[in-house]
Amino acid sequence: MMRSLFSGVSGLKSHQTRMDVIGNNIANVNTTAYKSKMMNFSDMLYQTTQAASGPGTNVGGINPRQIGLGVKTAAINTTITQEGATQSTGNPFDLKLTGEAFFVVSDGTNTYYTRDGSFNVDEDGNLCMASTGYIVQGWGVDANGDIIQGSVSNLNVMSKSNYEPAYTTAATISGIIDATDSNLETKNGKIFNLQILDNLGYEYNLQFGILPQKVVESGTRDIHNTENAYTLPNGTPDTLYKVDTSKLEYSYNVGGENRIISSTDSPDLITALDKAVWAYIQNNSAAPTVNEKTLAIKGKHELGDKTDLNKEDADPVTITINDDFLAAYGLSMLQFGALNGQDITVSFSGDVGYVKSNTVPTYPLSTDLSISKIDDEAVALFYTVGEAVNGIAACTLADAAYGDVTTIKQDYEDNDGNAITDYIFKDNKGDEITDAMSKRDLYGDIMRLMKLGTENKVQDSYYTKQAKDTESIDPGKYTITLLGMSSYGEEVNIDTLLNNGTTSWDLVYNPDNGQFDYVGESGNDAFTVALSSLDNKFSNISIDLTDTQNVFNEGKSTVTGLRDDGRTVGKMTGVSIAQDGLITANYSNGMSAVLGQICVGTFANSMGLQNEGDNLYSQTANSGECVTVDIKASGTGYMTTGVLEMSNVDLSQEFTNMITTQRGFQANSRIITTSDSLLEELVNLKR
């Protein structure tokens, strides 16, 4: 009787344990990567009331007679090989494992294993569990970015936050060179740019020009010559003088206000002032006498040295208006009396000119003088200019051979069809005055000087032949030239390249089909700009031209340059994790770098792992040693990013198990109550 009671008690305990397991499964139905538990029963010891006996002579064998003593928990197994469903999160650091492998994590002291791939990045850049902060383990990389498989260590996804810059070593020129493009006929041809980088990521602009190569053919051209002979003024009656042609301006101050005397309003006063100033300069007297009246005038003015008047310490030329001045020049006291006592300041324009005169000019200059503004450099070809006396300098011919000068005007068209006019000057010996020939900008001034002399026409015109080289474009042949180099608006000195003659390359196309043939020399697809000779921060750059053509494109060339490599410093823009656990960083300069690889752990008996809570497992004696492997290389599965593994708890199965467990518990309860009733009847026998 007592045995049934204890059997019932063991049944209650075992079913209670099973209910605990079921409850834990249901409680973790939404726990990430939770693996459900399953409990197995086994019967307990048996009491043998009669042992088994074998058969004898004419007697059969007897089976043993045993009474069971109840039930016990045989095992609680984890369904660790059964994967849970997939839950999408969109978080690139959330990972799901397929297969039976585990993530390896560490708290710095102990190593744990988990199927929970809910990871994030801490402040130090470590990839760690979101729930515990334990750091994910894996393999790092060497200097070349190759994975170093061996002992595992913490994985840091921010170990390379920047990607180093690099200089440009290769570039490509592509597009069309149209032979009808008018830009090809400019000084530097069709210009295009190529941006390159140095080893620090600074950008430089290389400017290139493409010019057609030309074939030169010898020939002649007709030149229209027109001759005129001039007798240059030199001595009486025709002498050339350098004179002061300053325009004088008169002003005075009233109450701090500067007022200009108008030649329109006061022409008589202006005439009187002009006479006084020029008389003073000619007489070079500080106090000239006019009609025996003293004229108060002071200051200085010298031909060719009028800049002194603009200096702060220069004495200005001033005239004091007084009664004597007005009377001397017959000016009305009534009209100009208001100016009596005023200091009139004289301003000079500072101009000079050349005049032909049979007498020394006097000031004010007469209105019938023809004054020519000729550059001093032009005059100096023929004359020696003397020292200025009273504001006038006489010009003496430097050589008697210049007394008569012949000018030969030549008109012709240059190679581009432009109308050109040149002058040749010859002295009276017939020798060419060659100094002028090197100063084409002086021709106009020299011709104005000739007009001041006496013109004697020698011959109207005639034609001569002159050698002329005719240039024509050589079809399909061009020259590409490095014109300059700049960085952020500043020019870079490329004299080293220029001195070495490594800035121009021949560019050849097949004239029949316009396809690229070679650059530099036959067989070359690219030319090299030796920038390393400028500075070691540059690399020599190989520039490929195979993508160019020499074809018609409506008169427009579309040649462009693009660097093929080189980079600025890159900032990390994102991190991705591949199916094999490779962690790759992407950078703003278009580069990427492998930062490490997440390893996984496998066990001979993963069901032998011990639960440690927090979705963690630890190694046990029955699980076997952990083997860290590359998940894909080992064939154990793969990783999926942006998703998590859900719990593998099957609620329908758990509810079914709960029902059977409840019924089992109830049945065992009945064993106890029934046994109790029997015991009660036994006790009642004494009545």
SS elements, strand count? 46
Helix content: 10-25%
End-to-end gap: 20 Å
Q: Count the helices. How many? A: 9
Biggest β-sheet strands, sense, barrel: 10 strands, antiparallel
Please state the structural category.
alpha+beta
Beta-strand content:
35-45%
State mean pLDDT (0 to 100 scale).
87
| Low-confidence regions | 287-294, 304-312
Report the principal-axis shape. elongated
Rg, Cα atoms, Å? 56 Å
Q: In words, what does this structure look like?
A:
The chain is 16% helix and 39% strand. A hairpin with a 5-residue loop joins strand 9 and strand 10. The two termini are 20 Å apart. It has nine helices and 46 strands. It has 687 residues and is α+β, with helices and mostly antiparallel strands. The strands form twelve sheets. Strands 7, 8, 11, 12, 13, 38, 39, 40, 41 and 44 form a ten-stranded antiparallel beta sheet that branches. Strands 15, 16, 29, 30, 31, 32, 33 and 34 form an eight-stranded antiparallel beta sheet that branches. The chain has a five-stranded antiparallel beta sheet with strand order 26-25-17-28-27, with no helix packed on it. About 2% of the residues have low confidence.
List keywords for this structure.
single chain; 687 residues; alpha+beta; ten-stranded antiparallel β-sheet; 9 helices; 16% helix
